[in-house]
Amino acid sequence: MTCDQARVQMLGGGEGKEFAEHLESCESCRNEVSRIGTLWQSLDLLPLEEPGGQVRERFYEMLGAYRQGLASAEPRRAFHWWQMASAAALLAVGLCLGYIVRGNGPIFGQAPTEVSQLREEVASMRQLVALSLMQQQSASERLRGVSWAYQAEPSDGQVLGALVAAVNHDTNVNVRLAAVDALRRFAASPETRRAAVDALPGQKTPLVQVALIDLLVDFKERSAEGTLRTLAENRDTSAEVRQQARWALEKLQ
Asked: How does pLDDT run across 162-189, given as a tens digit for each residue?
C-alpha cells in the first residue's frame, strides 16, 4: 500500500490488515492518523454554539472563492484534488476550532436561522467536494469522492445518486466496492434499498456481487429474495457467489 492509498483509507476510517501493516512501516502516515484523531476528538468537545461576526464572514468569503474557482476552471485543467478536498476539510475544522480560540469574544449567540444557514453551507460544501471528485477520470480521485460521501447528509439524494451510478457503471472495481459500502450511510432511504437490489443482477465481478449480497442482508431486504434465488441457481455465476446467495436467503427467512 502506498501513502496515497493510505490517505484514502484514512478518510474512510482506516481499517484492514494492509492499512495496519502500512502504518507500522510508515512514520509519516502514523503521524497523520494521530493528527486526524486528535482533531476529531477536539471537535467532540466543542459546545453547540455557532460562530458569527468576522469568523462567519470569512467562512462565506472563502467558500465563495472556492466555488468561483471551480466555476471558472477549464474542463480539463489538472487540479490536485487531494489538496482541494483537504483544504475544504481543514476549512470546516478550522472554523470549529475558532469557537474555542474566540470563545470569550462576541462570536456566539447568533440567531437560530443563521446557525441553520451556516450548517447548510457546510453540508453543501461537503456535497460539492464529493460530487466533484466522483466525476474525475482518475480512479484514486473517485475513491476520495466516495470517502467524502460518508460525510454527506443521509437525506442527500444527489450524493446517493452518484454512489448508485458508481456501483453500476464505474470501470474500477475498487471504486464500485467502496461505493457499495458507502450506501450504508443512506440505509434509511427506500431508494437505497431498491438501488441495491436492482444493481445485483448487472454485476459480473464476484467481489462486488458478494459485497452487494452482504449489504442486502444487513438491510434485511426481503424483496431481494427473488434476485438472490436466481443468482444462487445460475450456473454461470461463480461458486462463491452462489454460496453467498444461498447463505443470504437463509438469513432473510
From this structure: 999 999 999 999 999 999 999 999 999 9
Residue 52 burial by Cβ neighbours in a 10 Å radius (0-12, 13-18, 19+): middle
Q: What is the mean pLDDT of residues 37-60?
A: 53
In angstroms, the CA 193 to CA 210 distance is 16
What are the C-alpha distances in Å from 162 to residues 33, 43, 152, 214, 221?
Answer: 28, 29, 12, 21, 22
- Among residues 129, 153, 136, 120, the alpha carbon closest in space to that of 67 is found at 129
Q: Which residue type, as a one-letter code, is found at position 196?
A: A
Three-class SS of the chain: CCHHHHHHHHHCCCCCHHHHHHHHHCHHHHHHHHHHHHHHHHHHCCCCCCCCHHHHHHHHHHHHHHHHHHHHCCCCCCCCHHHHHHHHHHHHHHHHHHHHHCCCCCCCCCCHHHHHHHHHHHHHHHHHHHHHHHCCCCHHHHHHHHHHHCCCCCCCHHHHHHHHHHHHHCCCHHHHHHHHHHHHHHCCCHHHHHHHHHHHHHCCCHHHHHHHHHHHHHHCCHHHHHHHHHHHHCCCCCHHHHHHHHHHHHHCC
Burial class of 220 by CB neighbour count within 10 A (0 to 12, 13 to 18, 19+):
exposed
Least confident segment among 35-44, 53-62, 178-187:
53-62
> Burial, 163: exposed, middle or buried (Cβ in 10 Å; 0-12, 13-18, 19+)?
buried
The confidence score (pLDDT) of residue 249 equals 95
